[in-house]
Amino acid sequence: xxxxxxxxxxxxxxxxxxxxxxxxxxxxxxxxxxxxxxxxxxxxxxxxxxxxxxxxxxxxxxxxxxxxxxxxxxxxxxxxxxxxxxxxxxxxxxxxxxxxxxxxxxxxxxxxxxxxxxxxxxxxxxxxxxxxxxxxxxxxxxxxxxxxxxxxxxxxxxxxxxxxxxxxxxxxxxxxxxxxxxxxxxxxxxxxxxxxxxxxxxxxxxxxxxxxxxxxxxxxxxxxxxxxxxxxxxxxxxxxxxxxxxxxxxxxxxxxxxxxxxxxxxxxxxxxxxxxxxxxxxxxxxxxxxxxxxxxxxxxxxxxxxxxxxxxxxxxxxxxxxxxxxxxxxxxxxxxxxxxxxxxxxxxxxxxxxxxxxxxxxxxxx
Length: 366
Known about the structure:
Structural class: mainly alpha
Radius of gyration: 28 Å
Number of strands: 0
């Protein structure tokens, strides 16, 4: 659909060039999916594969899984079991890794009793890795950085978020990654609580600069910069949309837009709306005949879809509604359920009930 070489986007660009259409077009991919692709830059498969190996060994058979749960109850473990990993779920990996790290000692003890010869795909002993401090430190770092990514993912979700707001969240996360890189380079693990706890507990002299982890943060930041470079090149237009009262008019090259900005900055009523309410309220109060260029730029950013969150939510609603249990639902019921679940409007049930005639039963009359 959107491939760079042969997809719809590439064909559209080719058509515009053949038609001598000189205006540049903005191509925006889903921010949530882009964030998930950036997370693949971590390249710590040796940790994730090991975690999945242990979970499959325990959860593959129901008897062994029940034995593991009983074992956790006997040793008064923090949790009652491990969590299944699902690659298609955005927040799955962070929760799975955090639970596994909390139960790594119990998991190692249980496997030592049940399957002491368990090997990884590379022929390494699972039990040796579970007691290897270097591997456990990798696991702690992966838990911490994945939690930071999950926090960003949750912020990117939601119904009423404009593309500029999503881009600001991504820019803020890039700044955090730069901070992580600098701190880890000097041995500071302040922002990595599981790493800090593990280093303090083991009291082992690891690499004081944590060079490997600092490099991972740097690569992750570069991955974000690469995937969102189209929007980075349009930061001036974004700034004009989000902060029209603070834009330097002399830097604007459009003569008509300069005059519109001066008129807007002199309008104290609009400035109060901008400060006290929202940017959408401001643009909804502006008149097209007075601010045509400014509103054209605003419409461009307001109508951009920053994520497919609403579509994904619609699929989830349909999956819940269209099941075997509510077998009496018709296509009309499903359409109505989708409409209710995906709209921000609230139904006025009192008014709807008043318009219906009440049918009294014969039992009620008796």
